[in-house]
Amino acid sequence: MTRLETLQKNLLTVFGDDASLSLSHDELTLEVPVDAWIETCTALRDHNDLGFEICIDLCGIDYSGWRAPTFEFDSTLFPHRFAVVIHLLSVKHNWRMRVRTFVPGDDFPVLPTLFSVWPTVNWFEREAFDLYGIIFEGHPDLRRILTDYGFIGHPFRKDFPISGYVEMRYDVEQKRVVYQPVTIEPREITPRVVREDDYGVGR
User: In the chain, which residues have pLDDT < 50?
Assistant: First the structure.
């Protein structure tokens, strides 16, 4: 039995045969409901047959517009617009896996923090909050980490304009940096491709 098959067997033993488990690119993904987020992650860390001591990454995902022509959310594909994915490592067993949960509240997504389970998620959760606007309830210091203090919005949301909402410049008269509405006209650039009429034919 391979290491991956052993991990899959252990996960099904711990969480039951009806656990939402999938295999892709030689890595297992466990899908967890929000109300079992902390409990499941704690078991992944503490159970001797799993032993995921380290959370090596956490990120947010905005599924709006996924396989759809607009930014309208397609609930037939995913239960909620936003999801959080963590990547776990077990040094003891030398295996990895990912865990995903869909966060309810498409306008104001809220999820319990994993800080008490893996303190390493501190800055990861701050990044997901900054870029996607996902609130991690109970986080000890949830504030922006990449954008400026006066930044408006969450730039990784798919409905966020490419040019943003405000721009900053140095004002010579005031002798300080000031914020003002964006002066750039948003436009869509379509690249032009010029080719011969018989390009690629018979070559």
Answer: none
Domain boundaries of the chain, sorted by first residue: 3-145
User: Hey, what CATH topology would domain 3-145 get?
Assistant: Beta Polymerase; domain 2 (3.30.460)
| Residue 36 dihedral angles phi and psi, to the nearest 5° | -115, 15
Whether this prediction's pTM lies above 0.85 is answered by no
The phi and psi torsions of 129 (rounded to 5 degrees) equal -65, -45
CA 107 to chain centre: 16
Residues 145 and 132: beta-carbon distance below 8 Å:
no
- Pair 111, 99: CB distance under 8 Å: no
121, 160, 143, 106: CA torsion to nearest 10: -70
Paired tokens of 10: 């252990």
